[in-house]
């Protein structure tokens, strides 16, 4: 029997969440360069997240999407391998966590792949973009910090997101990255710091990727006890975040 009060509470919570996200979405859509993103590409991932939270996507559909996501990851790897950017990016976030902890992509993270690259390689990613687009990876939203610098760019294929985070060198051999979201008082820009680490190749999903040599150190910096699943963890809970500030990006007003 359906617990109606509990269901209504979940719906109300989701409505509040989406109202907060609407402000984030409006801001992102106004950023320079994001006007080329098709409305259907914008709405698809949003709808999927809502349906997933309520368990409304059938298991067969989830399995089919997971297989397609793996195929698209292999395609992404193949396309970038033919460009100068091919050995300049590395696996990060949930994809790295899934490989290290379970030897697979995390089921709840299917459809969202995170990668990093050094800020010095911006131009190489620019030059690789036509090859990605020719392979069906369309441009999704980019994020810019309060000064207007593009710190994250994303591509979409079959409704899945492939995100590339720009790491900017800072003092004491550290690297800075940026995350964006909604907080109790409005839009938030979070700044995280990671030590610069050596990279190495590793095999996953039938392809060779790159990752930090000491990937366990990186995962611990982000997640703490990364070996134990935590379903309540959100990306703004990242332990490597050192400061947050109001997000008012140039060009969004």
From TrEMBL:
Protein name, UniProt field: LicD family protein
Upper taxonomic lineage: Bacteria, Bacillati, Actinomycetota, Actinomycetes, Pseudonocardiales
